[in-house]
Amino acid sequence: MTGRERIMAVLKCQFPDRVPFSPNIGQWFDFHKNNGTLPEELQNCKDELDAMLALGCDIFSRRLGNFVKTVHYEHETVTESLGDGWTRTTIKTPVGSVSDLNKFERGSWTTYTHEHFVKDFERDFPVLKFVIEHSDWAFDSEAFRKVDERVGDAGIVMVPFFQSPIKLLHNWAGQEAATFFMLDYTKECQSLFEVFTAKVVEVAKQAAKSPAQVFCTMDNLDSLFHSPILFRQFALPFYQTLAEIFHSEGKWLFSHACGRLWALRELIAEAGLDGLEGIPHPTIGDLPLPEAKKIHQRFIVNGGMTAHETEINTPDARDLIFAYVRNLFAAMQPLDRFIFSSG
Q1: d(CA 12, CA 212)
Q2: How many CB atoms lie within 10 A of CB 206?
Q3: Strand pairing partners for 158?
Q4: Cα–Cα distance, 284 to 259 (Å, whole number)
Q5: Residue 236: which residues within 8 A CB-CB, separation 6 or more?
Q6: pTM
Q7: Alpha-carbon distance 130 to 112, whole Å?
Q8: Is residue 211 exposed (0-12), middle (13-18) or buried (19+ Cβ within 10 Å)?
Q9: What are the pLDDT digits (tens) for 73-105?
């Protein structure tokens, strides 16, 4: 089987010739590429897709491109470099302005948010509301085609596709403040979320008619911040609507899920999600992969490699990793509906 055939077999709940191997090496690649420390066999690779192809991976990644483009907006965004990796971004609208503060850390090759846009609900929330109400997006089929051609028979391009309303508010206000806002200003949040969902639905209808097969909401699902109560009220209708649109065209809907998921199992099934991407098994998460496979009869498990496994560097690292993989694969029998990937 080719990588594309292998991934497609898993999606169709069939048995591939072997378990697909689809590690998410993007952040690792970017760090080593920019620090000149890539292994010799990858030094000529220009990006993570080149590296995955060179390694013979079965491609199933949400990091290969941005296929949703902004086609209309009425706000102004100004980003100021403050030095030493710090940046401040200000969004200006007729109803007010907000700013955030971020720092890029070279050690982890990651940007951390130190201040979010929405700090005071009554002062800052109108800016978020204006931005959502006065922005429109579209699916970029040509951008998808170019990446899909590069991947070819090596796998399937997973389209990163918006975020749930809960995650939208997390991004603007931070997880803690967003949670209190949803509890204290429920009507206002619900109204905004309905506008946001309606705009996402229009893009989903376009995307569902495209050649893209798999879509993944970028949600970082975690029951610590997507509690079952909040999930049911604010996220469940969003997922169900998207699932209905994509399923009607024979497509699949995943969500990125890198947190604690045990308490969300039944809601994930009710949401119509076909699988979760990046499931972290214990002790980082709390959902063992064999249990994830039971979420529903066609549920796809994507995970198996966390920092606990990838950071082993003792003299017996090879033996420990091989033993871990053998035990994992034994626990996941029968080996359908499973993609061995990063958690």
Answers
A1: 15
A2: 14
A3: 214
A4: 7
A5: 267, 270, 271
A6: 0.96
A7: 25
A8: exposed
A9: 999 999 999 999 999 999 999 999 999 999 999
CA distance 240 to 222: 18
Instruction: Indicate if the pLDDT at residue 343 is higher than 90.
Output: no
| Residue 126 and residue 136 in contact, taking contact as beta carbons nearer than 8 Å | no
Q: Can you tell me the distance from the alpha carbon of 209 to that of 238, in angstroms, rounded to the nearest whole number?
A: 19
Residue 335 pLDDT: 97
Work out whether strand 275-279 and strand 252-256 pair parallel, antiparallel, or are unpaired.
parallel
Residue 14: other Cβ atoms inside 10 A: 11
Radius of gyration of the chain (CA): 20
CA distances to 152, 334, 337 from 212, in Å: 13, 28, 20
Cα–Cα distance, 16 to 5 (Å, whole number) = 8
Three-state SS at 87: strand
Q: Which residue type sits at 79?
A: T
Name residue 270's amino acid: E
- What tokens does 65 get? 């491109």
Residue found under tokens 């003299």: 315
